[in-house]
């Protein structure tokens, strides 16, 4: 217990793993977990000149579009620049429609500056624009700006609502239903809050669809040890990419009503829909089209973000949630809670305004905007297809159609010997696989165990974000690796 | 299964027992009875919600944040009424409740906004209107971003290059004392990092529940967060009669008391102070460090106002610097987290939510947990990170933007100093208002003497007396302040917190109106 210089003995610290918050220790977030840490280390080694069987690490672990070469939407960045440095409003290099939006946003900011705090719920005019966007998207169903809360990315809104919902102790502790596989923000937040995670399994054989009977099963089982209060659904799905059918969404809503569950609909990938016959249906829209019997009852929170879709502006941490049928007193509590953190980042709020208030036909920036948006989305659609096709040519890899979102979550068959070696090392077999892949090819993926999967099955999550040519190379390297791995451990 | 309980013998309790038995079998009847109206507006059956005041997180209910609390909500309402044309004794609401510089007319630093604009829209790097020093900083920042874009996620701890720049800034500020970039965590404003550290520190139950020492008065982020986390707040009183200074004996008293019912683990100090504005002496800071070392407390030093020091003879001493200058006996032991932000000082860039913390002597295993925890929220806003980079890496004497930068920074800080002095002087002319020197930060926290009649009326209205006072002030003058009860104060004393941010001319008017109001109030309730 001596300190390095041999002086006084190391004193016991105040904050140790024994004295720290126990819930925090239970938190895991695989998307930036151990495999990514190893990838970062390898990148440093490459920089130092250490020789490897590859020249670069390909970070296909995280849905970070710009980092993988996707370009920002020109119009959005023009308006952001104008808001940031309003002297540019005199610069004729900027189109009028960009300037108008910038002026409008600045007028809504304290002292006409995006450096001012905004109201805690978010800039008024932005919330109005978000409400209008939702109304247009949902075929005219009204959206009240007062039900809109701007947030620091969708993650912030999701954590806030989960926090509000967590109560009780022991058998009355809040249970939260979430899909397996899921985006690990949910499992991490549930662990941190000390709520109870209630897993419902998506059906891999049926393209990761949701079975109400499975919801029922998991709920029944959960009732024996907690108080289920919430049902979370990610649509389009992460990591699985399925786009739920309208029927399925209606069934989930009926289930939530019948079983008295607060619905949380994570819809951050709503523009990322690729497969033929698939369409995004917002939970809000379906809810209201089902009539007052449902629309006056179901408590719903829907989440959106500037990080995905065609914008990919992850770094701006823009997002919002719409709350429906929230108890007015609870809503006051929600407003109070978010006020403690003052406000979400103003640049992210401004960016969200542009997303919901993009160039219209007749405006100078329209053509370029449409082209850029279309290009991004069609490139993603192409890559979704490419990924599914190539992976499905590999014996031992089975990839469901990537209907939407930004990831493929293929099932990998691992030889018995590999599984045993992994277990001997104390590693989840798919982590063992992914680590080897990383060390041998430089490709960084996230093992399925980080998202959840049925016992005895193994997967990995890979983004479809690298540029098409690089993606092809990556998929072929994966194919090669898998064949080699299967042979090596047969 | 347990046998059913025996009905109670007491007749009142017996009746209640019968009711509860009935309710178990006919919940719907009783529920409808309790709630009266059974039909919703569209004629559908009433249904109890899943998420109600009874089922929600009880800790959240205990959270209060006065800076944006009830008085501000009323101020917003009044603004709407004014817009609708309703006649009032004033034409505008003056929001002197929150440390929001730009909202009160302070201008952003030109250089910072130029760099951020270049980062947002790199096409502008071709634009001859931008100076080279701004461009080179923008290029450097973008090179450190994924895909050369502010829109990429950064690493969860924050862009490495920026953390290195911050480490160098800290080294320069602290006279060369080493700073490891790996001990720097960028955050979404300082608030984010403060909450994260408190979260890590909270554990135990009952008598072993974490206790956190915080000054009274304090910035209510602390009380709100402790309530939310279910930690125990341990209040130590600053000495109003001695310019809000900190007495170690008072720390000791508070700690002794607290040990009886919780496990004190952390000591939070805001320097320069909010709401009180005091700038602690070096001696005091050493005293606090010695105390933390002796009593095994994790030190949290909130230093977001470090450039806002006005009074003669006052100087900002960072806790880190003092700690290391006290020698190994302390610098190797004391666990310290220091916080800074882009929201205050001369930048006032509140909306960007930029901030950082430096952790010193953090247990390596706990540090791993910290890194893991912040990774769940991916990363702090990248524009805020970029802003922080230019704050710690401003124009140098030989650079094109230097002169303008220095002028803007000096003007902003000098204006604040002027307003701090003016505020203190004018308020001290008012009989019944006593204002300590505003040594630093952005607020004045004067003590107001309220007549017993007013205190009584307030209590009848179930309002704290200073809320009662501030509400009347708001309704009669449009000036929005925050009552001292929102920050904490000694029992039987009343205060308000007012920012010194309105432009000088307006501030003079505000102060004159407060003087008028106070005299009128005193007369009315004497």
From TrEMBL, chain A:
Residue stretches making up the Aminotransferase class I/classII large domain: 78-476
Quaternary context: Homodimer.
Molecular-function annotations in GO: L-alanine:2-oxoglutarate aminotransferase activity; pyridoxal phosphate binding
Gene Ontology CC annotations of this record: cytoplasm
Family to which this protein belongs: Belongs to the class-I pyridoxal-phosphate-dependent aminotransferase family. Alanine aminotransferase subfamily.
Annotated EC: 2.6.1.2
Cofactor(s) the protein requires to work: pyridoxal 5'-phosphate
Upper lineage: Eukaryota, Metazoa, Chordata, Craniata, Vertebrata
Reported function: Catalyzes the reversible transamination between alanine and 2-oxoglutarate to form pyruvate and glutamate.
Species the sequence originates in: Cyprinus carpio carpio
Domain of life: Eukaryota
InterPro entries tied to this protein: ALAT1/2-like, Aminotransferase_I/II_large, PyrdxlP-dep_Trfase, PyrdxlP-dep_Trfase_major, PyrdxlP-dep_Trfase_small
Name assigned to this protein: alanine transaminase
The UniProt record lists the keyword Hydrolase: no
Catalytic activity: L-alanine + 2-oxoglutarate = pyruvate + L-glutamate
Gene3D superfamilies registered for this protein in UniProt: 1.10.287.1970, Aspartate Aminotransferase, domain 1, Type I PLP-dependent aspartate aminotransferase-like (Major domain)
UniProt keyword annotations, A-Z: Aminotransferase, Pyridoxal phosphate, Transferase
CDD domains: AAT_like
Catalytic class of the enzyme: transferase
Biological or metabolic pathway of the protein: Amino-acid degradation; L-alanine degradation via transaminase pathway; pyruvate from L-alanine: step 1/1
Pfam families in the record: Aminotran_1_2 (PF00155)
PANTHER family named in the record: ALANINE AMINOTRANSFERASE (PTHR11751), ALANINE AMINOTRANSFERASE 1 (PTHR11751:SF308)
Keyword Hydrolase included in the entry's annotation: no
SUPFAM superfamilies: PLP-dependent transferases (SSF53383)
TrEMBL record, chain B:
TM stretches of this protein: none
Catalytic reaction list: L-alanine + 2-oxoglutarate = pyruvate + L-glutamate
GO CC terms in record: cytoplasm; extracellular space
Cofactor(s) needed by this chain: pyridoxal 5'-phosphate
Main location: cytoplasm
Keywords on record: Acetylation, Aminotransferase, Cytoplasm, Phosphoprotein, Pyridoxal phosphate, Transferase
Keyword rRNA processing attributed: no
Single annotated GO MF: L-alanine:2-oxoglutarate aminotransferase activity
Subcellular location: Cytoplasm
Ranges of residues in domain Aminotransferase class I/classII large: 118-514
EC number: 2.6.1.2
Pathway: Amino-acid degradation; L-alanine degradation via transaminase pathway; pyruvate from L-alanine: step 1/1
ATP-binding is among the record's keywords: no
Similarity annotation: Belongs to the class-I pyridoxal-phosphate-dependent aminotransferase family. Alanine aminotransferase subfamily.
Function: Catalyzes the reversible transamination between alanine and 2-oxoglutarate to form pyruvate and glutamate. Participates in cellular nitrogen metabolism and also in liver gluconeogenesis starting with precursors transported from skeletal muscles.
Quaternary data: Homodimer.
Protein name per its UniProtKB record: Alanine aminotransferase 1
Annotated source species: Cyprinus carpio carpio
């Amino acid at each position: 217990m001596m300190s390095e210089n041999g002086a006084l003995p190391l004193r016991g610290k105040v904050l140790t793993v024994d004295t720290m918050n126990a819930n925090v220790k239970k938190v895991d977030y695989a998307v930036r977990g151990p495999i990514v840490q190893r990838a970062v280390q390898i990148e440093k080694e490459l920089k130092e000149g250490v020789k490897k069987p590859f020249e670069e690490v390909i970070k296909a672990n995280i849905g970070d579009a710009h980092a993988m070469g996707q370009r920002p939407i020109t119009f959005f960045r023009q308006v952001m620049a104008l808001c940031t440095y309003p002297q540019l409003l005199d610069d004729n290099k900027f189109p009028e429609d960009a300037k108008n939006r910038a002026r409008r946003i600045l007028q809504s900011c304290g002292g006409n500056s995006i450096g001012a705090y905004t109201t805690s719920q978010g800039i008024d005019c932005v919330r109005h624009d978000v409400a209008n966007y939702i109304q247009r998207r949902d075929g005219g169903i009204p959206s009240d700006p007062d039900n809109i809360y701007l947030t620091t990315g969708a993650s912030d809104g999701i954590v806030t609502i989960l926090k509000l919902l967590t109560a009780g102790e022991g058998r009355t502790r809040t249970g939260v239903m979430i899909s397996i596989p899921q985006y690990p923000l949910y499992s991490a937040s549930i662990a941190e809050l000390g709520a109870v995670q209630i897993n419902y399994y998506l059906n891999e054989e049926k393209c990761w669809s949701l079975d109400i009977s499975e919801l029922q099963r998991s709920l029944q089982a959960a009732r024996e040890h907690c108080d289920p209060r919430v049902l979370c659904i990610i649509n389009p799905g992460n990591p699985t990419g399925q786009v739920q059918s309208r029927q399925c969404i209606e069934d989930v809503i009926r289930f939530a009503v019948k079983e008295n569950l607060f619905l949380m609909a994570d819809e951050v990938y709503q523009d990322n829909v690729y497969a033929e016959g698939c369409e995004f249906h917002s939970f809000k829209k379906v809810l209201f089209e089902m009539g007052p019997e449902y629309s006056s009852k179901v408590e719903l929170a829907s989440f959106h973000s500037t990080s995905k879709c065609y914008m990919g502006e992850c770094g701006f941490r823009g997002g919002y949630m719409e709350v429906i049928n929230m108890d007015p007193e609870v809503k006051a509590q929600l407003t109070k809670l978010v006020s403690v953190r003052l406000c979400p980042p103003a640049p992210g709020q401004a960016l969200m305004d542009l997303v919901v208030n993009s160039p219209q036909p007749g405006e100078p920036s329209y053509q370029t905007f449409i082209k850029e948006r279309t290009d991004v989305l069609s490139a993603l659609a192409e890559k979704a297809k490419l990924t599914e096709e190539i992976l499905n040519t590999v014996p031992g890899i089975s990839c469901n159609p990537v209907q939407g979102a930004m990831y493929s979550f293929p099932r990998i068959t691992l030889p018995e010997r590999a599984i045993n070696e992994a277990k001997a090392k104390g590693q989840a077999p798919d982590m063992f696989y992914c680590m080897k892949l990383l060390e041998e090819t430089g490709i960084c993926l996230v093992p399925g165990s980080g998202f959840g999967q049925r016992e005895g099955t193994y997967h990995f999550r890979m983004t479809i974000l690298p540029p098409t040519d690089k993606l092809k190379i990556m998929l072929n390297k994966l194919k090669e690796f898998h064949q080699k791995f299967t042979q090596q451990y047969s | 299964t347990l046998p059913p309980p025996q009905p109670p013998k007491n007749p009142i309790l017996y009746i209640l027992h019968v009711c509860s038995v009935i309710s178990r079998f006919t919940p719907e009847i009783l529920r409808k009875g309790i709630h009266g109206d059974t039909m919703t507006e569209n004629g559908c059956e009433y249904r109890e919600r899943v998420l109600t005041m009874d089922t929600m997180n009880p800790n959240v209910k205990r959270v209060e944040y006065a800076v944006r609390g009830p008085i501000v909500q009323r101020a917003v309402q009044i603004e709407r009424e004014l817009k609708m044309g309703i006649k009032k004794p004033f034409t505008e609401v003056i929001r002197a409740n929150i440390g929001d510089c730009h909202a009160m007319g302070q201008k952003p630093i030109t250089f910072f906004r130029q760099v951020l604009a270049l980062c947002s829209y790199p096409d502008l790097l071709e634009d001859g209107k931008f100076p080279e020093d701004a461009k080179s900083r923008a290029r450097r920042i973008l090179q450190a971003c994924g895909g050369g874009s502010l829109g990429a996620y950064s690493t969860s701890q924050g862009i490495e290059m920026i953390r290195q720049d911050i480490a160098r800034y800290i080294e320069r500020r602290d006279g060369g004392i080493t700073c490891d970039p790996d001990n720097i965590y960028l955050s979404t404003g300082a608030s984010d990092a403060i909450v994260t550290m408190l979260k890590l520190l909270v554990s135990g139950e009952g008598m072993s529940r974490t206790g956190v020492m915080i000054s009274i008065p304090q910035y209510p982020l602390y009380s709100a967060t402790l309530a939310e986390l279910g930690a125990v707040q341990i209040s130590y009183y600053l000495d109003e009669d001695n310019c809000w200074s900190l007495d170690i004996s008072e720390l000791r008293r508070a700690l002794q008391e607290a040990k009886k019912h919780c496990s004190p683990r952390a000591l939070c100090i805001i320097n320069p102070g909010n709401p009180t504005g005091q700038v602690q002496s070096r001696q005091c800071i050493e005293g606090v460090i010695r105390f933390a070392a002796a009593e095994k407390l994790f030190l949290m030093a909130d230093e977001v106002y470090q450039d806002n020091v006005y009074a003669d003879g006052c100087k900002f001493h960072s806790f880190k610097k003092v700690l290391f200058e006290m020698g190994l006996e302390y610098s190797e032991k004391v666990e310290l987290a220091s916080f800074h932000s882009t929201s205050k000082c001369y930048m006032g860039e509140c909306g960007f939510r930029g901030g950082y913390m430096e952790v010193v002597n953090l247990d390596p295993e706990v540090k791993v947990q910290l890194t893991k925890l912040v990774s769940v929220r991916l990363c702090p806003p990248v524009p805020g990170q970029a802003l922080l980079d230019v704050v710690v890496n401003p124009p140098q004497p030989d650079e094109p933007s230097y002169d303008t930068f220095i002028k803007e920074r000096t003007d902003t800080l000098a204006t604040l100093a002027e307003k701090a002095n003016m505020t203190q002087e004018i308020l001290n002319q008012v009989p019944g208002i006593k204002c300590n020197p505003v040594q630093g930060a952005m607020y004045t926290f004067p003590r107001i003497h309220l007549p017993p009649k007013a205190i009584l009326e307030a209590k009848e209205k179930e309002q704290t007396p200073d809320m009662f006072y501030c509400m009347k002030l708001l309704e009669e003058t449009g000036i929005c302040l925050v009552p001292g009860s929102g920050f904490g104060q000694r029992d039987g004393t009343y205060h308000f917190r007012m920012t010194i941010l309105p432009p000088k001319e307006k501030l003079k008017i505000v102060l004159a109106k407060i003087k008028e109001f106070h005299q009128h109030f005193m007369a009315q309730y004497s």
